[in-house]
Write a structure and sequence with these properties.
Elements (H helix, E strand, L loop, with lengths): L1 E5 L6 E5 L6 E3 L6 E3 L44 E3 L21 E4 L6 E3 H7 L8 H6 L11 E3 L6 E3 L14 H17 L4 H9 L1 H13 L4 H25 L1
Helix pairs in contact: 4-5, 4-6, 5-6
Length: 248
């Protein structure tokens, strides 16, 4: 008696005799390994019999996206990266600042907008108002700033009214204080650098240079120590030269 079996790999019909029941063989169509069953497959018609009509299959229900951009990323850039020449120069929708070369940025895969990673992580979603991700994740009603808060003049983040320093970007809010801080920084730079005239004074007037250097060190100026060091080094070199001349 000849039996028929449907290959589980390619659905091809395999004919075999009863003496081959239970044997492991290869499908002649796809070369897949199959074990011949002891009874014919009830879903497979016997040799010479017509094949029954297939059972009706219900159509699969699929969800259709309203916009293909919601399913496929529109950005060729990775989601997180260091800003290259393509991204540098774009405006971050979170802080409104320009993205600089080398900044950590997040590229939205739905709309292609680039934002600083810090701004994206703070909001938890894309900040582009036209982005599908932003529409789905942003509340319908925007949060109202507290009465005692005001936006920073430089980064736009909400800070306390009357705050001297922004805790987000580190910028002073008052122009007079910004100018004072700048002058203090410039004075600090001057305190650590000797001018050419001060170096010449240290070389030719060693004793007076040591006295002036001590006064500057008491005032907290770093260049006082440098002046004393130059004066001592000059004096040592002069003594060495004098000793060599006397020995000749």
């Amino acid at each position: 008696m000849e039996n028929h079996y449907k290959c589980p790999h390619c659905n091809a019909e395999i004919g075999y005799s009863s003496e081959h029941v239970g044997m492991l063989t290869s499908c002649p169509s796809c070369d897949g390994r199959v074990t011949l069953p002891g009874a014919p497959d009830p879903d497979m018609p016997q040799h010479g019999q017509p094949r029954p009509p297939p059972a009706p299959v219900a159509p699969a229900v699929t969800s259709v996206a309203a916009d293909p951009a919601d399913r496929q990323p529109v950005s060729d850039l990775p989601e997180r990266m260091k800003a290259n020449r393509v991204v540098a120069g774009r405006t971050c929708d979170g802080c409104g600042c320009e993205i600089d070369l080398g900044d950590d940025v997040h590229n939205c895969q739905s709309c292609g907008a680039s934002t600083h990673v810090v701004c994206y992580d703070r909001s938890g979603s894309c900040l582009n108002s036209t982005c599908p991700e932003c529409r789905l994740s942003t509340p319908a009603v925007a949060a109202t700033p507290a009465a005692d808060e005001t936006p920073c003049r430089f980064c736009g983040e909400q800070i306390k009214k009357g705050a001297r320093l922004c805790r987000f970007c580190g910028e002073y809010q008052d122009e007079d204080e910004r100018a004072l801080r700048k002058k203090v920084q410039e004075d600090a730079d001057d305190d650590s650098t000797l001018t050419s005239g001060e170096i010449a004074f240290s070389i030719f007037c060693g004793g007076l240079a040591c006295i002036l250097g001590l006064i500057w060190m008491c005032q907290g100026k770093k260049k006082g120590g440098k002046m004393i060091l130059i004066a001592f080094a000059t004096n040592f070199i002069v003594q060495m030269i004098a000793a060599i001349v006397q020995s000749l």
